[in-house]
Amino acid sequence: MQKVRWGILGVARIATNKVIPAMQQGQLTEVVAIASRDGAKAEEAALRLGIPKAYGSYEEMLADPEIEAIYNPLPNHLHVPWSLRAAEAGKHVLCEKPLGMNAAEVRVLMEARDRAGVTIGEAFMVQTHPQWVRVVELVRSGRIGRLRSAVGTFSYFNLSASNIRNHREYGGGALMDIGCYPIKCSRMVFGEEPVRVSATIARDPRVDNVDVLTSAILEYPSGHCVFTASTQIPLQQSMCFYGETGRIHPEIPFNALPGEVSRVIIDDGRDLIGTGRVVEEIAACDQYTIQGDLFSRAIRSGSPPPVPLEDALLNMRVIDAVFRAAETGQWERP
Question: Which tens digit of pLDDT belongs to each residue from 271-294?
Fold first, then answer.
């Protein structure tokens, strides 16, 4: 199968430090261009990463007929506008999460996808990481009995007023940046959609009143997910699933270390000292390499991408509901 020729929109840190080097190791991905509104930054990144072409504007790269697919790691408020431009230029698009600023934006992108006949998906790399594939498999097999509860945390500390994650107009805040992960992963493992949502949010005027501490309850047909996301508590991430006969959790759920063995812990809960604890090791891999290759395979085969827009829409609807619930103080339906 021929490699897909990729262009990168922007020189975001996640792209230059993680995604591009990983995609360059893929069997089906070839990164051939990178663009920035600052031509010098594009040239520097291209030189450092061994990318053949550098463009001083996004428009110029989208006009390159050799580029088949675009990876969009731009700030959240630019996800849909530039993904739209790419689709209209006939490019397939892999867009960073959260895919839009709200569900309405995702619907607009879905319409553009259908008009242009291109493949567009959300870059939720956890979807295809082998540790999450295994967690879903174990839960579905009944290893921990009937799934009843999921509990998650995701946090880091960032008080910089200049950081883009601390600007509301750019889609900043804890829920959009990291709260989307426990939402996505609980939906993925439950295999259901939340029927209603309750939430509370703390905002900080020092950083544009973005949400800096968000906690929510997602009520599923089969059980509950409770999570907290914060940009003002120490670095932490966890995601544990509780069934009637045990619990299961990946050791590092969201940012699994590339090139390192991942661990999935299963415990039958017979005591509090871990007598019933079993650890499964998942072979070292890079989830961004896997993501790029599977998206490229979807392009070549004409099959749906790992995280299609339909799934992105469902996740965005839950995010919207969490914001509404925090404002109204009532349960809200996605």
Answer: 999 999 999 999 999 999 999 999
Does residue 52 have a cis peptide bond before it, meaning omega lies within 30 degrees of 0? no
Write the pLDDT tens digit of every residue in 157-193: 999 999 999 999 999 999 999 999 999 999 999 999 9
pLDDT at 23: 98
How far is the CA of 197 from the CAs of 181, 240, 265, in angstroms?
16, 19, 28
Domains of the chain: 4-125+289-306 (3.40.50.720), 127-285+317-328 (3.30.360.10)
Say if residues 225 and 193 touch (Cβ distance below 8 Å).
no
- For residue 170, what are the CA distances in angstroms to 31, 74, 165, 198? 27, 10, 8, 24
53 is catalytic: no
Q: Are 217 and 135 in contact (CB under 8 A)?
A: no
Listed residue (271, 283, 223, 245) closest to 141, CA to CA:
245
* Contact in structure between 17 and 36 (CB atoms under 8 Å): no
| Residue ranges with strand state E in 109-268 | 120-123, 147-157, 196-204, 210-219, 224-230, 232-243, 247-250, 262-267
One of 18, 53, 91, 97 is an active-site residue; which one?
97
Write the DSSP symbol of residue 216. E
Average pLDDT in the chain: 98
Q: Is the pTM of this model over 0.85?
A: yes
Q: What is the distance between the alpha carbons of residues 77 and 112, in angstroms, rounded to a whole number?
A: 17
